[in-house]
Each structure stands twice: as C-alpha cells, then as structure tokens.
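Margin note from the TA: students keep mixing up input and output lines. Inputs are the sequences; the output is the structure of the whole complex. Example:
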Amino acid sequence: MFKNAIVRLPSQSMINGLSDADLGSPDFDKACLQHADYIEALKECGLNVTVLESCEDFPDSCFVEDVALMTPSCAILTNPGALSRRGEVAHISAAVEQFYDNIEQITSPATIEAGDIMMVGDHYYIGLSARTNQQGAEQMIAILEKYNMTGSVVTLSEVLHLKTGLGYLEDNNLVACGEFLTKAEFQKYNIIEIDQSESYSANSVWINGTVLVPLGYPKACAAIKSAGYKVREVDVCEFRKIDGGLSCLSLRF
Ligand code: CIR
C-alpha cells in the first residue's frame, strides 16, 4: 500500500516541454485543471499528497516520477538522460528528504529516468531507453542490492520510457502494449493486453486497489475493470501532448 505522493504543479513553460507527440502545444489552463483532478484522484486513493510549487525553469518538471525512485528502504535520486531535465533533481531533493533518511544518487556518466523503472514487489525492472543507459541500470541495481532489493534490465525500442507501455497492477497482473506483450520476462504475469489504438492507456497506475486510467480509452477501461479493479479515470490529455502520462505526474510511496 502507498501512503504518500509528491506532485509538482505544471509550469507555464510546459508548452516548451520535450515532445515527440505531434499533438500540438498543451493548453496551460486546462493542464492546471487536469492536474488538480489528478491530485483529487490520488487523495481518493488514500494518499497524503505533497504539492510542490511549479518550476518555470524546467518545462518538464511536473513529471516528478522521472527524477527519483522511492522504495520502501531508500530513495534514489536519478540522473535524467534528457539534459534539459537534469536540474530538476536538485529541486526535488528537499521534498524527498522530508520522507527518507536513506537517499542515494545516480551519477554521470550513468543516466536513468525512473519512468523507466517498474516495481514488482522488491524487484525493479529497468528499461534501457534513449534516457536510461546501461551504466544507469547498473548503478541502480547496485544500490537496490545494497538494500536487499533486486533489479533487472529490459530492452525497449518503441516507446519513450518502460512504463509508457507497461504497468504493474499488483496481484500478478500487468497492463502491456506493443513490444512488451511478447517479452519473455513478462510471460509469468497475467497480461491485460492494451490495444495498440489505445496504447497511451498502458500507462495506467495501481494505487491501493484502484487503477487510475487516462480518460478516453474505453477498451482499456473495460479490460481493467473486468480484471476486478476499481477504475478512476483521469483526463491528462494536455500532458499527453508533451509525452507525459499518469504515472509520470507523481511519486508514490
Ligand atoms: C519528457 O520527454 O521527458 C517529458 N516531456 C515527458 C516525461 C514523461 N515521463 C514519463 O513517462 N515517466
């Protein structure tokens, strides 16, 4: 079960966020309303939500998931592969210190963004992506092992981050799309297949028995409901325009 979440309010500069989406610029005012509803959804799942001020210098800084990995034993500050995002780490550390005594740090030349890390119990799958390199994965695994946890590497080629196409819903259930459907390491899970036409919804998030699903993906919603979960839809279409999904918008621990 998770108790806490940290989020950061979107900055007006989000219109300049990194994007391959080709969906136009986000509407800042709509994004703020969507973000407020996202916070509400986290609270409905029983989380205490720490809301950090927006950070204009960093257009992608509302995607706090990428700059820290919060485990039950320690927090690990990352070293984002996107240079424009590296400075976000210094801005999250004070908030992380409020909750953790054990704080570790990934250092260059290793790079890693925690959107590439999926937790399954005390094991962490780490995607090698354009943002996360082999050294990043190795440093992360060494830190996890120091705290009696484990990690393994997953290759990916079709999506930005591992969790762009994959999400663990606890109870041995995964939502997965595209290249992740056939990977050998995931065949031991019950895979809830996300249709390619709804690929964005593969970034759905389990929180304390409820699954947050992005609004507008009816097939995914139905499949997750029929697997027995309570679903809470959240409209994050303005964040999708800069390649952000539901999981990216919070740290949950
Ligand atoms: C980026 O490209 O870094 C942001 N525009 C989106 C980050 C999304 N984060 C995530 O998938 N964990």
